[in-house]
Request: fold
Amino acid sequence: MKTIKTSINLLLCTYLCISCNHLSNSTGRTIPAKIATTTIKGDFNGDGVQEYAWLVSPKLTSDSMSCEGKCVSVIKFSNKHIQPIEVDGCIGGVPVNLGDLNKNGSDEIGLLPEWFTSCWRSYLVYTYKIGKWIYAVPPFSVHCNTVEEGLPLIEKDTTTKGRVVIKYSELVNSEIITKTKSIPIN
Ligand SMILES: [Ca+2]
Ligand SMILES: [Ca+2]
Reply:
């Protein structure tokens, strides 16, 4: 009975959130408030026009222990011509506008995918090239200790063109160490 009550409350809350409070974007479309809290703005396809992006999480089972279907999150865009990004093995997360890290005219997107367990994650950085999303740098391991030290996990290498500095985690003698290194960016 308690579960049913909770479910009804949840449903009601979701309905109220979606029906009462919308954020309008530049194209006049509305984004549900629940999603709007994690919506980012930027020029992600490099056409000179800003758009919105947000992540849609997969549905979880009632015990929140697994997904109903595949655990795939999708980053969607207010510009429907930009293909959504499917993130496998991800139950949530907040996309970050990293700015134009590779100087190709479009903003890169960073994502720390959420998962049920484990503090170890792979940080994902996407760049839009010729109508497709590719990794700007190979996904790199970060532990939540490193994340708690503060962002950014990736930034331009101001000393060398075409490179970025990443902050990542490594297990050294059973200790989690935060390291930084400069790597090329796509
Ligand atoms: Ca754009
Ligand atoms: Ca770029």
About this structure: The pocket of calcium ion (ligand 1) is lined by residues 43-45, 47, 49, 51, 79 (CB under 6 Å). The first strand starts at residue 22 and ends at 24. The chain has three helices and 14 strands. The CA atoms of residues 96 and 110 lie 5 Å apart.
